[in-house]
Amino acid sequence: MNRSPEAQAQYERLLPEAIAAARAAWCPHSNFPVGAALLTADDRIIRGCNVENASYGLTNCAERGALFSAIAQGHAPASFKAMLVYAPNVALISPCGACRQVMHDLMSPHCVVYCVGHETAAARDWTVEQLLPGAFGF
């Protein structure tokens, strides 16, 4: 993947944080851990992991966990620099539809979302706008 030096530095900083977040995932039903690392405007990293529930609809994804935590900590919507999503059990991960909608509401359309599975060479970089084209919202 050809990334700018700044993007590569973000990727390299966020990857170990997302891996650590995935290790904290609570996924006894699916055995599908996912971790997210969100880079804030002030260069802090906020982690999120998926937390499952026996009633699957009550499960929360890593991406939403990181974003909701950032908002709860006082970070402004659309101020985030990047997010990296990691899942060790697949070659490549991609956010679900619910996460894409939340990203659309809380992140800038041009914010980069790095998606990585166990085959790091297969990693993909998308913008929020690319993840949810034709999105509805404000």
UniProtKB/TrEMBL annotation:
Tree of life domain: Bacteria
Domain CMP/dCMP-type deaminase residue range list: 9-138
Record-stated family: Belongs to the cytidine and deoxycytidylate deaminase family.
Catalysed reactions, as listed in the record: cytidine + H2O + H(+) = uridine + NH4(+); 2'-deoxycytidine + H2O + H(+) = 2'-deoxyuridine + NH4(+)
Cofactor(s) essential for the protein: Zn(2+)
Keywords: Hydrolase, Metal-binding, Zinc
Classification via Gene3D superfamilies: Cytidine Deaminase, domain 2
Single annotated GO MF: cytidine deaminase activity
Entry keyword Translocase: no
Purpose: This enzyme scavenges exogenous and endogenous cytidine and 2'-deoxycytidine for UMP synthesis.
Organism name: Pseudomonas bubulae
Full protein name: Cytidine deaminase
The enzyme's E.C. designation: 3.5.4.5
CDD domains noted in UniProt: cytidine_deaminase
Coiled coil (residue ranges): none
InterPro entries with a match to the protein in the record: APOBEC/CMP_deaminase_Zn-bd, CMP_dCMP_dom, Cyt/Deoxycyt_deaminase, Cyt_deam_tetra, Cytidine_deaminase-like
Pfam families, per the entry: dCMP_cyt_deam_1 (PF00383)
